[in-house]
Amino acid sequence: xxxxxxxxxxxxxxxxxxxxAEAKGHIVISEATSAGEARENMLxxxxxxxxxxxxxxxxxxxxxxxxxxxxxxxxxxxxVTGKSxxxxxxxxxxxxxALDYLVExxxxxxxxxxxxxxxxxxDQHYEQHRYIYLIKSFFDELENKESDxxxxxxxxxxxxxxxxxxKRRGERKGLLYLLATKWKQELDSxxxxxxxxxxxxSKFEAAAYFRKAAELWIEQVKxxxxxxxxxxxxxxxxxxxxxxxxxxxxxxxxxRLDVSVSYFxxxxxxxxxxxxxxxxxxxxxxxxxxxLLCSNQLISATAYSCGFTTVQHFNRAFKKETGMTPNExxxxxxxxxxx
Length: 339
Fold this sequence. Notes:
The protein is an alpha/beta fold. The protein is built from 16 helices and 5 strands.
């Protein structure tokens, strides 16, 4: 059974093709009158097994549409139809990756033979169509996903796509193109600017590009509810609390979490009321207070053990947080113990 998209400006021709295809047990998932409408239908309904397109369309010729599909190695067979029997058109259709060229008026038997050829190719596209279903499901549930789950599911999806065999790199590019166009469609519908990149080669490039799309969605479409902390913020806070004595920078943290600086900084400030560096200093000062309370350790040793690189920086940060220098704080603690 094939899933078919018919692209033809003439309604009578579309109806005739639909009837002939359905009589063979195939399913016509949608119809379109132009290449642009066909594209929108494919983004909404998923890619068909077979595209049957007329050579003459209002916005783009059927040959150009077939060529675009062939170049991106999208997992569908293309059958071109047209009133012209000019040899050059037929030859161009074949060079554009079309499975067949049917001269109008064509018989049901001719269309049936072309669809039989397409059926033999379905197994070759099985894996891609499985990924298409996963991509469609991802976007169908987009508004219901929590931020951290959205990021994780997209990362898992990209990992699966890049695990495709090297010989299927062209198919992988087609899937990445579908994912990119779906994000473009979602963000455009909400008036959020997002540039469509049609050729994404490396895993690193893909991770950065699609992470940016997801971050735009989270930041501008799906704000975090109430006091809920994202997974990123929980992870970063826990890391700081465990590694406060080590060198901690904003750049090293975003690399560790695999998020952008702008996204992490905005989310961290939104969740904690502090910048990341302010939080690092807050944790270090809290630890220094414990040390000053429980030991007679030198101020310099306390500074270094709590992650400060210089005593001067420690003194400034401590006074900013408590209103006292470390020495003054220790003396104040001593006066309390004598009362």
